[in-house]
Amino acid sequence: MNTAWFRFYEELNDFLPPSRKKHSFSVSFSGNPPVKEIIESQGVPHTEIDLILVNGQSVGFSQKLEDGDQVSVYPVFEGFDISDVTHLRVKPLRETRFICDVHLGRLTKYLRLAGFDTLYSTEYYDSQIIALSVSGRRIILTRDRGMLKNRLVTHGYWIRSANPREQFLEVINKFDLRRNFLPFTRCLECNESLIEVSKDEVSARLQPRTRKYYTVFKKCPVCERIFWEGSHYESMKNYIRNLPDA
């Protein structure tokens, strides 16, 4: 058996048992497996990783391990440039779009309220989520670590919290989205972009108090639900305004 020493940094430690967090530990293996295989055997999905150093040199996922190798594994970098080293993902997605797994319905609503293009269905299988992520260049948001280990997945994030509001804050901080909010622009049910309509056009469908107190209305072109800047809109604006710093 051969042995290599691994050290995972920052939030990658979230995936490790307490005995392996924030310090080097040894992993035994036979032959010369690719470093990706050993990393994921420790519970860390490849989508969370942006840099691997083996004996101080940046390498790709296919790097074969040797006995005695020293391996350092780093998460996605947001704060500084690592353009001179071996990136482990394709170029970043310039337009941030998401697809949520079946356990993240409430998070989906928060993201759509904030204006982010987010696919979701309780009928999606994991294979469908992955296919839609790849074809639509969408980031998978999931509570299932196993899905992110699928070799076809290029962009994904494991949601740590079980609380929907904390999940929303996680995503906003992880992808630096605070300047990208566009509330009141997307259907909460269909995810379609809303279109502005005149009050006269929808008046017959409004409750008397809504008709009396509101003047700006939008409609989903698919499900035809009507939206106005009511309490849900004010609540979202206040929530966004008071989000704690990262």
Spatial extent as radius of gyration: 22 Å
| Proportion in helices | 25-40%
Major beta sheet, strand line-up: 2-1-5-3-4
In whole angstroms, the N-to-C terminal distance is: 43 Å
TL;DR of this structure?
By secondary structure, this protein is an alpha/beta fold. The chain has 8 helices and 12 strands.
Structure, explained:
The protein has 3 domains: 2-75, Beta-grasp domain (Ubiquitin-like (UB roll), Roll); 98-174; 185-228, no CATH class. The protein is α/β, with parallel strands linked by helices. It is 26% helix and 19% strand. The protein has helices spanning 35-41, 105-113, 126-136, 145-148, 164-174, 199-202, 208-213, 231-241; strands at residues 2-8, 25-29, 49-54, 57-58, 70-75, 98-100, 118-119, 139-142, 156-158, 195-197, 217-219, 226-228. Strand 3 (49-54) and strand 4 form a beta hairpin. Helix 2 crosses helix 5 (164-174). Residues 78-83 have low confidence and may be disordered. The chain has a 5-stranded mixed β-sheet, with no helix packed on it. It has 8 helices and 12 strands.
Looking at this protein, list some descriptive labels.
246 residues, alpha/beta, Ubiquitin-like (UB roll), 3 domains, five-stranded mixed β-sheet, four-stranded parallel β-sheet, 12 strands, 26% helix
Note the topology:
Elements: E1 2-8, E2 25-29, H1 35-41, E3 49-54, E4 57-58, E5 70-75, E6 98-100, H2 105-113, E7 118-119, H3 126-136, E8 139-142, H4 145-148, E9 156-158, H5 164-174, E10 195-197, H6 199-202, H7 208-213, E11 217-219, E12 226-228, H8 231-241
Parallel strand pairs: 1-5, 6-7, 6-8, 8-9
Antiparallel strand pairs: 1-2, 3-4, 3-5, 10-11, 11-12
Helix pairs in contact: 2-5
